[in-house]
Amino acid sequence: MAQVTLRKVVKMYDETPAVRGIDLDIADKEFIVLVGPSGCGKSTTLRMIAGLEEITGGEIAIGGDVVNDVPPKDRDIAMVFQNYALYPHMSVFENMSFGLRLKKVARDEIRRRVNDAARILDITELLERKPKQLSGGQRQRVAMGRAIVRDPKVFLFDEPLSNLDAKLRVQMRTEIKKVHQKVRTTTVYVTHDQIEAMTLADRVVVMNGGVIEQVGAPNDLYHTPQTKFVAGFIGSPAMNFIACRLEEAAGALRARLSDTLSLPVPASRTARYKPHVGKSSLLVGLRPEHIREEPRHPEPDLHLFEVMLDVTEPMGMETLVYFTIEGTEICGRVNPNAGAADGAKMRLAAELANMHLIDDSTGKVL
Amino acid sequence: MTALTASGAEAARRPQYGSISKSRRWALRWSYFFLVLFAIFFLTPPIYMFITSLKSSAEISAATNPWWVYSPTLDNYIELLTQNQYLIFFRNSAIVSVCVVAVTMVISVLAAFALARMKFWGSATLATGVFLTYLIPDTLLFIPLFKTFAFIRETLGIELINRWWTLIILYPTLTVPFCTWIMIGYFASIPKELDEAALIDGASWTQTLTKIFIPVALPGIIAATIFAFTVSWAQFLYPLAFTTSTDQLVLPVGIVTTLIKGDVFNWGQIMTGALLGAAPPLIIYAFLMDYYIAGLTAGATKG
Fold first, then answer.
1. Is residue B167 one of the residues assigned to a domain?
2. Predicted ipTM > 0.90
3. Where is the ABC transmembrane type-1 domain (chain B) (predicted)?
4. What contacts B248, CB < 8 A, 6 or more positions away?
5. What are the structural domain ranges in chain A?
6. Which B residues, 196 through 255, put their C-beta within 8 Å of a C-beta on chain A?
7. pTM of this prediction?
8. Distance between CA atoms of B155 and B148, rounded to whole angstroms?
9. What is the DSSP letter of A288?
10. Does domain A4-224 have CATH number 3.40.50.300?
């Protein structure tokens, strides 16, 4: 059993707070991803769990024991670093067995564990090589192998894929997921890449400015973000935010985006949005995939409008179209055969059932 | 018409590019020129020493061509190597140098590890202080050191002056600061994640030093070792000031004090002694040259 618990954890560097009191419960065998922009405190949080940074305030418990003052080696954790941190003068076998040798584990046992880990990671034939003879992906595997052989309570990953090229990154991402399915150890994984976070995590923790913005399953974060930051951070291309004014007419609400364009708010949201009529700092949040070409057959809850396209970006399976409303650049995703062209007029359809209303002054999704 | 003049003017303005291979050839020529110049400049003295060491005293003082040996003889070598005195100098020098290297490396590796990796109050100031110590010339240090030794003799009754082993205490004042400085730089170039990984793997500070830092920083350690050896082998001023009896002398001072009697210079033996004395560092350099260069250029590029 190795759940990890963070209670009001604070980290100060001199007078600057890096982490401002976060609470997090990580279940046994769970894969948690901490994601956020650089400087959001995600790496610091991970390093506090590892014991590489002292905790200024609050409490961290691993497997039910508070570890605030326990040195890293007694926390029974293993960490994979961004630059792999392989010992350059040791062979792969020596690298992987270093921790076990320090613990004076029997030689046969070491050999068995290293061979098992090597088989899981498919690096059996590399065991006699030195790190400098390995490619980036192989080094990454060895670094993971070094963590696996220790059979720790918790795996910690600190941006392990950011040093790899794009193709290898995708490949290793799948690899990490497979390894977790085989080894089933509680894992805390730090990344700034939201796609990595979405694909790997059981639950994603979005951090910003030293606090947790939202915790949830990848799809929950995507479909029901609670703050503007999460709404904008998760998803690529990012969600469109358009300034709007709520207007009430005959019991129905409309979001007015410009003098000529106002979108009808779905009836199901009327009650929820009604108190905000007339507020000045409202934004409509609409993901690019909810702005698409006019369908051939009419569908309910679609609002059609015509725009002048600024730029189009063909991606193959779809085409991204960019246009401007009241000075805000908006992105939509249309079928590549819909005839979108730079500088051309196009009729688009907004799926308002998937809209979000955001109060920009508080950053909260309403 | 206008088009013609325009293109003519353009041609006139076109810059002259040299060829890369041509400029490379010239660069090579110049570098060979200077390399040969330096080689002549630095090799002439040892060659002259070697030629002189093969001559008898009579031939040295005769007005013949100083660059040619007419009747080569090994008398100087035989005489010197059968003389007990010279062998004692050699032994003293060897013991002192080896001990100084050992003492220096133990102190400076431990000090550098602490200064580079353990952030404690004043560690940065201390690191700069170590370097500043190295900037003080040794000619300024030997008088206060002499006074200190005299004081120790008066108060504790321990005689430190005119004892060859005293040099083992003295030389590290010259070698430790510089070697510590080299090692700080070398240790600082080792990525921080490496000791963090070791820390998580369960290594203590001592194990991190012996199992990770020393093996990884081996080129730097060898560079520092060579430096410490060279300094202690070639040191002249301190042994001249601190040792006087013939049996307490080290090689450089021994040759000068015993082979120059009044105004009689025994040139043949002086040259032979100096040449033989220069051999050990030369042999060490030859074996460790690759490591030495790697050590000096550490951190220049990302390995």
1. yes
2. no
3. 90-288
4. B92, B162, B163, B164
5. 4-224, 240-365
6. 196-203, 207, 211-212, 215-216, 218
7. 0.80
8. 11
9. G
10. yes
